[in-house]
Amino acid sequence: MSKSCFLRIVTFLLCLALGWQFWKGILALEPTQIIIGPAAHYIESAAEETGATNIVAAILFDYRALDTLGEASVIYTSVCGIAMLFAKSKFKISSTGLSFIVKRGVSFIIPFLLLYAAGIVLMGHISPGGGFQGGAVFATATILFCIVYGSGFEAVMIKPKTKELIESSGALMFVLIGFVGLWTGAGFLANIAAGYPKGEVGRFLSGGSIPLLNIAVGMKVSAGLSTIFYSMIKLLEFEVTKHPGVKNK
Amino acid sequence: MISLLTVLIPLTWAFLIPLIHIFRKTWLKRAILLFGIAVFFVTISAAISGWKQSALSFLGGWPAELGIVLIVDKLSAAFLFLSAIGGGAAFLASYGRLKEGPWRYYVIFFLLQASMNGVLITGDIFNLYVFYEVFSLAAYLLVAFTISWQAIEAGLKYLVLGTIGAFFILLGIAYIFMATGSLNMAVLSLVLPHIPNEALTVIAASLLIGLFIKIGAFPVHFWLPDAHSSAQTAVSALLSGVVVKVSIYTLLRLSLLLFLETKPAVFTVITVVGTLSVLGGHLMALRQEDIKRLLAYSTVAQIGYVLIGVGTGMAAGISAAFFHAINHMFMKVGLFIAAGHIAEDMKTRNIYDLRGLYHHRRWFVIVFSLLTAAIVGIHPLGGFMSKWYLMLAATKAGNVIPALALAFGTVISAFYYMRVLSFFYSSGDPPPRQTYPYWNLAIAGACALCCVFLGIVPLVPSLWKLVSDIGLNAVDTAEYISTMLSK
Amino acid sequence: MSALFYSFVCFFLILTALVASEIKDILSAVISLSVFSVLLAIAFVALQAPDVALTQAVISSGLITSLFLVAYSQTQKEGRRENDEE
């Protein structure tokens, strides 16, 4: 036992030393009162140049849109990998649903949850939010379906192939929106320069291609995260006959 | 624009394959083959056009300080060429074995190629990190593809250690952003000399530790033998041949652009780690009985050679390092494909059970011997030339101990490779199996021929000038900066 | 916000992270990780970054916790699972 204690103490001291080195590195930088670098340009002119009042959305989907494509590819890769690793396995006891009161209660909440998710996605360019956050809330709604109604119900309502379709279509939509910019000669994933309408800053219909990219990312993220959850709780055979609307596979 | 297509085209194929699988499953076979060939040609043409003149792509139309810029100069073009050939060979090997059955495998494969090309051509440090993560993730998944317990354990080990490395790289990038406020590598190269020295030490230490974990250099290489030996044949070839080289490119680019004038100690550290990798890799390979693990430890050692070349910090060293990288790619891809095919065919990876292989797998053993001779460094083949130039560059830079370690390591590698060959050529009588796929033999044979060709390259002045141009271009950071900031 | 608030949040961040990595019971560790994520989201809101806070709250304390719990529940049942791997 003392060897593992010794190792723990050594690890703890190593972590402390690492933390001290990083702290020393931070202390060496004197804090600046003015913002330097491209951040200053973003703060001043993001609204006129891109048409979006949410500067974070402008940076994510206009100035540095290739990073967002890369991040969406990370999610795509992990979803594909998880589906590949769990392709042949089915689990016998998954979720069989909760009691009647919970089902009725959740059925009142679900429409508002979906509306909230859609609101986050669509208004990403004027208020905090965007494709990633909204897509994650959509996926949370499907997880709620699984937990409350049973995974059989969820598999019937939204088939796994539909989720694959939505995910790939969202990803392709992102790339195609970027190609429009390439075709008009303004560069890949160009926003206003590629001809997307800028609109009036602060209104709902503004921001050029940013709402479209939000929708594409929202589709991809929601379908992807939902696929991850579903791959881990696939049902082998149906054992419950209590809920209405569930057909045998 | 074509440099952008090297990233976009494999990405689009990766997104299209599930749609084809849902709607028209019968098109899948021809579609995948066509996609792989298209990616190969696009990458080669991007490499050629980037070689002649540095090609810039401003994404979204924003200038270099605000947005992301893709730049292909001679160093990137050379590595793009390497990635195209390595990726193409691995694609052919895996297509030959798996056909179009596992379509998710091809999705992840194309994402791997897209993100490797993205790492090679980007000029923005956070974009580099994003693409690096995509291809690391794809590599973790490809290792675990066969879903045997060994492959999953290897993939898990690779995942955990790779994520720790990525954490350190991200920490370094976060420090850079906190200190300077910008993320474009050319702008950073201009701004970093003005930062206080302790901050630079922290940045350099974080980036180096992260990159060494990802490359698989000696003290932190623990994931590499498991991952490269437990993967499938084509995936091992791809990992050892190409993925490691892309990580070395990242180290090269970051240390040349960011640390050349400000912290030359970085190059000393790289040389020391390279020497340790050479000695450690070769010594560990001596004890191996599993042929794929032996090849994986040999990869660790060869990475050490390339790191010794990078650590000189001079044009000659970098040219020699690239030449050894491309030689090693051909040699390792050929060796892994030959060894992997033999292992799958004879159902064993232990070299004691592979005695007497010469008598019924004649051509495989001949190709294997040729590649072994190349990697040990027998004279007219490519391996000898690249090690010779590495020793010259190391001695010219004043690092005598690495050059001695290099020679010593070559002797050790000769020892364990000859042991494997002695088993192959000895007499034994395992039952001969008559499955004789020409496909893998053809790819391994092509790699062996390329090694022979590469051995002749330094003797032809016009071809050798191409290689030494790479080093000169890599060290010329002023030209990189002026090309990037010219708009 | 005041330094007291920040030091409170930082102290509990470190505490929950230590609990999550050292405790033996996996379920407690997962719940502790979820608390860590919520505290981090609060810290992001205090630092005036609402997009990051929203992402952190939804994904980390919502989805990641549920995925951990699913993985935990699937690996705790022996003998009641039929699948072809391992």
Automatic annotation (TrEMBL), chain C:
Sequence ranges assigned to domain MrpA C-terminal/MbhD in this UniProt record: 12-76
InterPro entries linked to this entry: MrpA_C/MbhD (IPR025383), Nuo/plastoQ_OxRdtase_6_NuoJ (IPR042106)
Primary localisation category: membrane
Cited Pfam families: MbhD
Membrane-crossing segments per the record: 6-23, 30-47, 53-72
A GO CC annotation given for this chain: plasma membrane
Nucleotide-binding keyword on record: no
Keywords associated with the record: Cell membrane, Membrane, Transmembrane, Transmembrane helix
UniProt entry tagged with the keyword tRNA-binding: no
Membrane topology: Multi-pass membrane protein
Localization, UniProt: Cell membrane
Listed name of the protein: Uncharacterized MnhB-related membrane protein
Organism expressing this protein natively: Acetomicrobium thermoterrenum DSM 13490
